Protein: 4-deoxy-L-threo-5-hexosulose-uronate ketol-isomerase
Organism: Epilithonimonas lactis
Amino acid sequence: MTQSEFRYAHHPNDAKNYTTEDLRREFLINDLFLENQIKLVYTMYDRLIVGGIMPTDKALTLETIDELKAPYFLERREIGIINVGGKGKVTVDGTVYELNNKEALYIGKGNKEVTFEAVNGEQPFFYINSAPAHHAFPTKKITKAEAEIVELGDAKYANRRTINKLIVNSVLETCQLQMGMTELHEGSVWNTMPSHTHTRRMEAYFYFDLEEGQTVSHFMGQPTETRHIFLKNRDAVISPEWSIHSGVGTANYTFIWGMAGENMDYGDMDAVKTDELK
């Protein structure tokens, strides 16, 4: 079973007037993982699709949705998948890829049948991002050992973190989609700090590995007009190209970042000094 939602893009001047309820309705994505279901959110920000897939006792097939006006999901799209649960498998036009926890799979444009299954009674949680694609690149599995690893931050500022670049152009070719996973070290709670924006691409964040009963406050908005949204474990949030995307938790956590847009340069960002945020 597949359920899908549609989200419009927003002018930053409009977002300044949003209530907490408005912000959560427009940018927060919760309840991503539903038993034996595929949940997809299609956003007009670079037409990124954010989704969660939770197969339990049967295989789930990635089906097209009305917004695509396409005979199959990947006719004009690419997709990145990161498993944040137990072992699972993804079958792409007959080829099987087993994904352990925190392993990724990139699937290029033109693949017609994609199915998701649990393995040996384990419970996988497949988090996905999908973007429009103009060229067919090969399907590829990426483990953490194959990722480009970057260590950033400082325990002094509570932002020591390990960045795992999984689906980026330094690891494999894609059209525009980029995905990676940032793991905060114990005792560190701040991510993406100092903050930045990048008008060349939008972004989506997915927070997980958060201890039960804890929360993450995700900061968004223009650097001098910020807002916040409180998130729970396995919540996602849409970040417009005009918005910062930083967060702080009441405990350490992991998050997946996914980007789509016209620029593939990971370092292309407009930095904002921490003491200039408002």
Summary: The CA atoms of residues 110 and 202 lie 24 Å apart. The domain at 2-276 is CATH 2.60.120.10 (Jelly Rolls). DSSP finds two helices and 24 strands in the chain. The first helix runs from residue 12 to 15.
